[in-house]
Design a protein that fits this description.
Length: about 400
């Protein structure tokens, strides 16, 4: 996950057709039962879904949906409304500017509760794919923004204000069409790089967790299916949530899942509402068998007393648990913690204990990010030493784990 896509974009909004007649009705007219026949793509044709399980319901118990009218009236929007029939619908002009939600300082004290109970539906107006070159070749226009989980260091909410629930973009067909045109323009990858030796890699989850999004709609499944048809490209997303429903798809090796891991004690303090680290590691073999490429994010690396010993234990656990098939294709990204003063102040309202570990002024320096945000990161010398230490630990305890990049 990262800053929102920006830059020159080609707008792609088809003219309304007879099939779009639902867009002429108000939101109050949409609560008429399940989505009409022919508007919904069928989900996996196997048994009960994990997203209907008590575990999923605890993570997402949606009671309030803020919706742009066109998003709610779209086929994907109707599917989502049918999934949460008891939720109250609130019409909004813009998914990005909801004063009662993002602009209400009092919401900070309900940070986690809002993530569970509130959902936003909108249309992604700007479709832009921009170059990256580190984790992926390209950052795709994502299918969502925000998350139901509550990692204390997440940078997505820095731009939103006092609440950061999931915003689902319902115009998924336009997003996929944009990506298809972009993939076609690139042609075959001519030279290998750190992203991938043979395929163009597109990060589809920069501002969201696609595993969690799959609890809400078929957006993630649609993207996995699309990339399975494109032989020159791969989708990629990082996740801290194990969603078994994704095992029912058929990615055909064209989607890379990057399980983010850190020492379990750090995760219990910082990765609120996520799957346990041990569960993420254990899931790797199942995802590989289901046809995914499986990588790992060692992220974020937080410097605190005893951190190297705990990372050594984590890497030993991975070496013990992961089968040879996972090890033979695995690679990792090492990402040192970047923090932010506004997020620090917000965290103090709901999770001050996390800030004891994250906010280290004596060890950190100012950093201006690509989107102009004023963040803090570890001082150059401390960061360089820590990255070198992680590389040594990997060489010692998990020598099979190739580090694609570290920063």
């Amino acid at each position: 996950m990262g800053q929102s896509p920006s830059g020159g974009a080609r707008r792609s909004h088809p003219e309304p057709s007879a099939d779009d007649a639902g867009a002429l009705f108000g939101l109050e007219d949409l609560r008429t039962g399940p989505a009409p026949a022919g508007t919904a793509r069928p989900g996996p044709p196997i048994g009960p879904s994990f997203r209907d399980s008590p575990t999923a319901r605890r993570l997402l118990s949606v009671r309030e949906i803020h919706a742009e009218p066109a998003a709610a009236a779209s086929p994907r929007g109707r599917q989502i409304l049918a999934r949460f029939p008891a939720a109250r619908i609130i019409e909004v002009d813009s998914h990005w500017r909801i004063p009662a939600l993002h602009g209400n300082e009092g919401n900070a004290e309900r940070w986690v509760r809002i993530k569970s109970e509130v959902l936003v539906l909108g249309e992604k107006k700007t479709l832009a794919t921009r170059p990256n070159g580190r984790s992926a070749d390209w950052i795709a226009p994502g299918p969502a923004n925000g998350c139901a989980m509550a990692c204390a260091y997440c940078y997505v909410p820095r731009r939103k204000g006092y609440a950061n629930p999931i915003t689902v973009f319902t115009n998924i067909e336009q997003i996929i069409a944009h990506l298809g045109r972009h993939v076609a323009r690139q042609g075959p990858k001519r030279e290998p790089n750190q992203c991938d030796p043979g395929a163009w890699v597109y990060d589809i989850g920069e501002n969201n967790d696609c595993s969690v999004d799959a609890l809400i709609s078929e957006n993630t499944a649609d993207l996995v299916r699309a990339f399975a048809r494109w032989p020159t490209a791969k989708a990629s997303f990082a996740t801290k949530f194990v969603n078994p429903d994704l095992l029912l798809l058929d990615p055909r090796g064209r989607t890379r899942v990057r399980f983010s891991v850190m020492p379990p004690d750090d995760s219990r303090l910082l990765d609120i509402r996520t799957s346990p680290v041990e569960q993420r590691i254990a899931a790797a073999a199942d995802f590989l068998e289901a046809g995914y490429e499986v990588h790992f994010n060692l992220s974020p690396v937080v410097i605190r007393p005893g951190w190297q010993e705990d990372w050594a234990q984590l890497l030993q656990l991975m070496d013990d648990v992961l089968p040879r098939a996972v090890k033979d294709q695995a690679a990792a990204e090492v990402i040192m913690l970047t923090h932010n003063r506004a997020l620090h102040d917000l965290n103090l309202t709901w999770h001050p204990r996390a800030e004891d570990m994250l906010w280290r002024p004596g060890l950190q320096q100012a950093k201006v990010s690509e989107n102009g945000s004023r963040n803090v990161r570890y001082r150059n010398h401390a960061k360089a030493e820590a990255v070198a230490a992680v590389r040594r630990l990997v060489t010692t305890y998990a020598p099979w784990l190739r580090i694609r990049y570290a920063f």
